[in-house]
């Protein structure tokens, strides 16, 4: 009778093979078996049913003793010279200690192989980071790739080798949550931190010895994402306000009938505490309210999405690429119209639960890590992000009917934008300042490239500035004008002179002004293009 076949896992990248993406075991006929879909080599699966031949116990014992003696000799040989040299000083983080979570890295790459350690967000690490790394390494001359499972489901190794076999890179990918990006950087076990939220003040203090990680050369926005609120496809609820979401996830709304759904208990699903997705949701939705204690917590984004898609009573939140078989509802904030997460609403960050995905790297990081960071914000990398279901940052346009989510638009605004096209980008500023943030500075380069590629050289640029409503109307009017002027000054250095530079103060909010996140979204400069003649409106008198 034939022995049962072994099982194996495809070693190709998830972006290239559905077997690799799902980690589905497939039959192996022998050690050289390959994936039936992509023909990549199979790695034996732990659940294999392969038969084995049992050796006599004395022979096994003798072999084991021999191996132990050999291992001790090799360890003594390599450790002896290291003990005669001065050890490298330990990297100690300045400022308050950051509690570590997730397994630390102690891996050393084989001789002749460069090691790159990328730790942090599951949202970034599951799909986007491997795809970006493959594109980067291909550009660097590598052509043979395999993605191998690690000790835990959230840990993998990407192996790359040049065609001639003389050069290789091993990338250690750990996706235990955004918080672990900064603990890893602080403790020196991470070269590149990936995050689905910006670095916190206490994390900045804890990584002070690495330099200012919030500076332009260290903080990189690599893509945009929308935190989608998902329900079962058969749930009749199609839109929810931020207040309704807060009450649902806090357990204050216990029955779907209270928000217009079919009567039945609400089942809440949420990401785990290490997740940047949870940090974003907590900041944008929950505020001071605690998550209901009966919520089912998930470390993996795909598992959460699948659980909600199978439960008619369920509600959860997830990164935009993981909606899959569930259904995303429209979300409203304050007086703004409800919006579903889409390419345009997330790219402009008008969608209430849009967020930025970050990469952090120290100026002291290895050269390979710094070059990867620079690649990750390139136009090519943004196209990779698009292909993985995230939102790239290369600007696109939409007409006025699709591009104005504000509920109350001033007549002057309607007149200026009626036949214009809005770019899928909002330029934002540092808190309480008219200085552009790191993303906005890169976005200016992208806008200029788009204008250079534009088929019509007669297109005019409109810069429309807005503020939140904190403070007096006149102060906000001046601040919105100053922000539009700042963008115009920057564009002038590229030879672009806008036809309209106008501030609208706190008019046309896209979010409620009762939270820091909402006020930040309202502080923006929109960029519009028009081919028709346009006259700049007179500045509004303000006393």
From TrEMBL:
The chain crosses the membrane at residues 59-79. Pfam families: OmpA, PBP_like_2. GO terms for cellular component: membrane. Keywords: Membrane, Signal, Transmembrane, Transmembrane helix. It comes from the Bacteria. Residues 416-533 form the OmpA-like domain. The keyword Signal applies. PROSITE patterns: OMPA_2. InterPro entries: OmpA-like, OmpA-like_sf, PBP_domain, Phosphate_ABC_transporter. Residues 1-20 form the signal peptide. This is Phosphate ABC transporter substrate-binding protein (PhoT family). It comes from Sphaerotilus hippei.
């Amino acid at each position: 009778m034939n022995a049962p076949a072994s099982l194996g896992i495809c070693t190709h990248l998830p972006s290239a093979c559905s077997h690799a993406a799902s980690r589905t075991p497939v039959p192996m006929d022998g050690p050289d078996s390959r994936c039936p879909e992509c023909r990549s080599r199979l790695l034996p699966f732990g659940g294999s049913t392969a038969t084995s031949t049992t050796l006599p116990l004395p022979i096994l014992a003798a072999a084991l003793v021999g191996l132990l003696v050999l291992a001790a000799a090799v360890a003594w040989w390599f450790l002896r010279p290291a003990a005669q040299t001065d050890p490298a000083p330990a990297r100690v983080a300045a400022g308050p200690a950051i509690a570590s979570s997730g397994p630390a890295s102690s891996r050393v790459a084989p001789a002749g192989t460069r090691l790159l350690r990328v730790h942090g967000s599951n949202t970034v690490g599951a799909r986007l980071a491997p795809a970006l790394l493959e594109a980067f390494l291909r550009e660097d001359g590598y052509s043979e790739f395999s993605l191998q499972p690690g000790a835990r489901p959230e840990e993998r190794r990407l192996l790359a080798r040049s065609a001639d076999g003389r050069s290789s890179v091993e990338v250690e990918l750990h996706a235990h949550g955004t918080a672990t990006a900064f603990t890893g950087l602080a403790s020196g076990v991470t070269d590149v931190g990936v995050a689905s939220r910006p670095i916190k003040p206490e994390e900045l203090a804890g990584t002070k010895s690495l330099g200012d990680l919030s500076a332009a050369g260290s903080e990189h926005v690599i893509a945009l994402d929308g935190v989608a609120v998902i329900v079962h496809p058969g749930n009749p609820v199609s839109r929810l306000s931020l207040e309704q979401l807060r009450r649902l996830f806090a357990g204050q709304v216990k029955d779907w009938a209270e928000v217009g759904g079919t009567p039945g208990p609400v089942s809440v699903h949420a990401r785990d505490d290490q997740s940047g997705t949870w940090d974003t949701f907590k900041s944008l939705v929950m505020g001071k309210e605690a998550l209901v204690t009966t919520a089912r917590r998930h470390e993996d984004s795909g598992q959460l999405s699948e659980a909600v898609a199978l439960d008619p009573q369920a509600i959860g939140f997830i990164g935009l690429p993981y909606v899959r078989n569930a259904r995303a509802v429209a979300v409203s904030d304050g007086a703004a119209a409800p919006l579903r997460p889409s390419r345009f609403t997330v790219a402009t960050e008008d969608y209430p639960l849009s967020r930025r995905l970050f990469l952090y790297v120290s100026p002291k990081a290895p050269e390979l890590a710094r070059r990867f960071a620079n690649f990750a914000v390139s136009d090519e990398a943004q196209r990779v992000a698009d292909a993985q279901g995230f939102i790239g940052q290369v600007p696109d346009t939409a007409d006025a009917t699709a591009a104005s989510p504000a509920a109350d638009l001033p007549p002057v605004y309607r007149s200026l934008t009626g036949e214009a096209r809005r770019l899928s980008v909002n330029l934002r500023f540092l808190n309480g300042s008219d200085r552009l943030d790191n993303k906005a500075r890169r976005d200016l380069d992208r806008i200029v490239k788009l204008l250079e590629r534009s088929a019509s050289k007669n297109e005019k640029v409109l810069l429309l500035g807005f503020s939140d409503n904190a403070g007096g109307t006149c102060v906000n009017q001046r601040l919105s004008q100053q922000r539009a002027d700042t963008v115009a000054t920057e564009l002038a250095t590229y030879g672009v002179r806008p036809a309209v530079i106008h501030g609208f103060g706190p008019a046309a909010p896209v979010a409620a002004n009762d939270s820091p996140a909402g006020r930040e979204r309202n502080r923006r400069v929109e960029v519009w293009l028009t081919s028709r003649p346009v006259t700049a409106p007179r500045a509004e008198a303000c006393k």
